[in-house]
Amino acid sequence: MNNEIFETMPVPKAYIKLALPVMLSSVLMLVYNMADTYFIAATGNTDIIAAVSLCAPVFTFLIAIGDILGLGGSSFISRLLGSKKNEDAKRVSIFCLCGSIVLGLVITLVLMMAKTPILKLLGATQNTAGFASDYYTWIALGASVIIFSLVPTNLLRTEGLASLAMVGSMLGSIVNIILDPIFISVLGMGAAGAAIATVIGNIFADIYYIYVIVRHSKCLSIDPRGFRITGHETKEVLRIGIPSSVTNIMQSIGVILLNNFLLPYGNETIAAMGIVSKITMIVIMIMVSFSFGGQPLYGYLYGANNKARFREVMRFAYMLVCGLGLAISCVLFAAAPVLVRLFIQEPSFVALASSMLRIILFGMPFIGFTMVTTCIFQSTGKASGALALSAGRQGYIYAAVLFVLSSLFGYNGVVASQPAADALTAVLAFVLMKKILSGFLESRQKNTER
User: Are 72 and 237 spatial neighbours (Cβ–Cβ below 8 Å)?
Assistant: First the structure.
């Protein structure tokens, strides 16, 4: 394990060294998402675009499940490594990696059994139900490989192996990008083809991750023979993992709510929002990468009781992530029509999606502040703060704002609800940060003085 990154390397250099591989893999994943949307849009059928958008919460749900063991495990393992408890970290990693496979199989069974009511809940109509069913089925069948791929991505970074984690993410995305046009266009499989390409891409990534853990990792293991975990250790993983997963679960719920509120205004609005969501990923994924790329530092420094360096990392993260969010949002705001035309050329659709995109972008800098604060809470085991923020932005805060603004302003209120919720969540993040984090820093200082 490379302790220099965590203990002596200048903070900006250490932070970027850990976060940059995450960002690069996220950029490639973003390219995959854009390619996925491009080839689906190339069919010229807005019902297919809408169907895939309707099923996005299912994929997001699988990411949320992966985060339970991936982010929960990485938070706990980082603290264990900071406390020099390497063997305990290895046992916890086995629990997270093997557990993700078992959990994925259970979820496949549940999703397939509840397929019809879930598709109805997602907002599938007579025009979109068939396409949505095709996409849903293949994503559900691939639940295990999708969930598993998210765990080593996070765990490898706790050991300083961010570059190797990046290669796995990039491999999965590249395979996906290559297969998308083959399955969607050449073979004419449409929505089903997009889902199949996603699953196969994740299979390639999983094989790579298993190889890396077996051959290169000193602190992680996937050997079930070494499995042994206490109730306390399980609780430590879950009490951070569950709040972490709530972010994506709430995102799924938020998308379902949004799609149902947009449905009275036509499938075109849902299709447009699907494309807008892909474009705003440019900002969100970069901010997520630079927020959570620093997570191993927070966890390690917390476990090592290095309060001064912890504060330095925190200040750097806020300036970096919020600054990037503002700068990239300004660029996307100016280029909105150009970006939408990359997917569909029809003038009325371009105008509709461009207007949506510009409104949504107002919330991006606020998201950056919330993300960094959430990451700090997760890394230090502050589950209550992490849960409050994870459940807020696209959960209880978003739902309340959506109902109020849609009632007052109709369609415009529906679209404006997300940036309004982003701003309110950032205010909550600031209040919780002052309350929870100040108490944490004071208690660590008292312990050090003793």
Answer: yes
Cβ atoms of residues 19 and 289 within 8 Å? yes
End-to-end CA distance of the chain: 30
SS3 of residue 429 by DSSP = helix
CA atoms within 13 A on the CB side of 98: 16
The b-or-e profile of 255-279 (16+ CB within 10 A means b, else e) is bbbbbebbeeeebbbbbbbbbbbbb
The 10s digit of each residue's pLDDT in 389-426 is 878 877 889 889 999 999 999 999 999 999 999 999 99
Give the integer Cα–Cα distance in Å for 198 and 204: 10
pLDDT at 449 over 70: no
Phi/psi of residue 222, nearest 5 degrees = -120, 10
Q: Which helix (H) or strand (E) holds 394?
A: none
Structure confidence by residue, pLDDT tens digits, 367-381? 989 989 988 887 777
Q: Which residues contact 249 (CB under 8 A, 6 or more apart)?
A: 60, 61, 64
- CB neighbourhood size of 238 (10 A): 17
Helix (H) or strand (E) holding 45: none
Question: Widest CA span of the chain, in angstroms?
Answer: 69
Nearest by Cα to 95 from 156, 151, 164: 151
